[in-house]
Amino acid sequence: MAAEDKDARYRRKIAKAKRKEYPRRAPEQWTEQRYAERGTDCLLDGVVDTVARLDVGTSDAAEFRARFEAPGVPVMLTGAMERWPAMRSWTFERLRTEFGREKMKVGEDDDGYPVYVRLKHYVRYLAETDDDSPLYVFDSSFAERRGVRALADDYAPPACFTDDLFGLVGERRRPPHKWFVMGPCRSGSYVHIDPLGTSAWNAVVCGRKRWALFPPCVPKEVVQPKHEGGREAIAWFTHAFPILAAAADEAHRPISAVQRPGEVLFVPSGWWHTVLNIDHTIAVTQNFASAANFDAVWLRLRKSRPKLSAKFRNSLLTARPELHARTDELEHAAPIGPPSPSSSSSSSSSSSSSSSSAASSRSSGDTAARAGSASAVASPVASEAAGEARRKRRRCEGAPTVADAAKQAERAGVGAKVCG
C-alpha cells in the first residue's frame, strides 16, 4: 500500500473512533481549548505531592495493611515493579512492532459497545495528537484476547495486593478487574469512585500521572462541580482543582500526587480520584476486593449483583469462613450508595463520557448510606442505616486532610514537595 494510502487509512480510522465515542462532538471541538499549546509544564504548576511513599524493599505487606489499607489511606509504593518484564519491554515502539495489528479499546459508543483502534494507529495518534483530551486506551479484556494476552505475563500484582477475593468465583464470573492503559499527554480520567466498593492499584511503566484524591466523606457535588470544559480530566484540573485547593473546608481540598515510572499508587475503597497524564504513559491497573474493604464490597455487590453475590458468598464458606460469617452479620445492613456497574473503569477512563450509561459507570459508587423508608423506621434495616450514617460522619471527621497526608508523607521519609 502506498504511503499516502496508509496515511489516509490511519486518519479515517482515528476519525471513525472519535465519531463513535463522541458522536455529537464536531472535529474542530477536539482542539478548541488549545491545551496542547500550553505544554506540559503548566500541568504540574504548584502541585504539592503529599502522598506518602512506602518502599516495599524495606517493608512488608503487613506494614502496608496496618498503616494504609486498614485505615483507608492512599500511598505510593516504590520498588514493587523492578522485576517486571514490562519495565523493559513495554515501550511504544516495541508494542507497535509486536502488537500493531491488534485492536485496543479506546472507549464506548452511545449503546455501550466498545470502540477499538489498531495499536499501530493508536501509537501514531499518541505521538501526533494535539487534541485537548485525547482518545485513551483503557482495555479490560486484553488478558483474554489471543493477540495481546501475552502482555499479562509481563507483570504480577505486588505482594501487598495478593488478597483478591473476587478470584474465588473464577475469572469468567468475576467483574472486570484489570486494565492495560496507554495514553498521550492530556488524556485522563474524570473524578469517580471505583465500582463495587473495590480498592485499586495503578502501576506506571513509563510517563508520569498527576492525581487528585478525596476521602469518601466528600460529597459528589463538591468533587464534581460545574466548570468549563465538560467532564474532562484536563478541564477539571484546569478549572476545578485551583478552587478546591483553596477550599475553606480543609477536608474538601484534594490530596495530590505525581506518579512516576516504577511507582504503584494505592487508591482505597470509596475514595474519589481523578488522574491526568503529564506525559505519554503506559500503565496497568487492577481493582480488588480484600478483607479490608469487604463490608463495602459485600453491601454493594449484594444490592447490584444478587446472582454474583450468592456465588461469591458460597465460595467464601470454605475459602474464607470468617468473611462468610460476616455476610450474616451484615444481613440487615443498608446498601452503601447506589448500585455501581461492575464494568466501570478502575482508575482512568478517557475523560468525558460518551453516553449517559458510560457517565454513570465512571462516576458510580457514591458512598452515602441510604436510610430506610419512613414506614420502616423501627426496623433493623433502618436502625442499621442510621448506624451507617453515624459511622460515615465519624469517617469524615477522621478522614485524612491535605495536612494529614503531608504528615504521613513526612513520617514515611518523603517530605511534601512542589512539582514543576
Describe the structure.
The chain is an alpha+beta fold. The protein is 33% helix and 18% strand. It contains 13 helices and 15 strands. It has helices at 3-21, 61-69, 86-89, 92-99, 119-128, 220-223, 233-245, 294-304, 306-319, 321-329, 356-362, 380-398, 402-411, and strands at residues 47-49, 53-55, 75-78, 103-108, 114-118, 137-139, 178-183, 188-192, 199-206, 209-214, 255-259, 263-267, 272-277, 281-288, 417-419. The strands form four sheets. A seven-stranded mixed beta sheet has the order 2-3-12-9-14-7-6, with helices on one face. Strands 8-13-10-11 form a four-stranded antiparallel beta sheet, with helices on one face. A two-stranded antiparallel ribbon has the order 1-15. It is globular and about 65 Å long. The termini are far apart. InterPro entries: Cupin_8, JmjC_dom, JMJD6_ArgDemeth/LysHydrox. GO terms for molecular function: histone H4R3 demethylase activity; metal ion binding; P-TEFb complex binding. Belongs to the JMJD6 family.
Supply the number of helical segments. Answer: 13
Give the C-alpha Rg: 21 Å
Mean pLDDT metric = 84
Q: Spatial order of the strands in the main sheet?
A: 2-3-12-9-14-7-6
Note the gap between the termini: 45 Å
Characterize the overall form: globular
List the secondary-structure elements in sequence, H or E: HEEHEHHEEHEEEEEHHEEEEHHHHHHE
> In this structure, how is the largest beta sheet organized?
7 strands, mixed
Q: Which structural class do you get from the secondary structure elements?
A: alpha+beta
Q: Tell me how many strands there are.
A: 15
Helix content: 25-40%
Are there runs of 5+ residues with pLDDT below 50, and where? 338-391, 414-420
What fraction strand? 15-25%
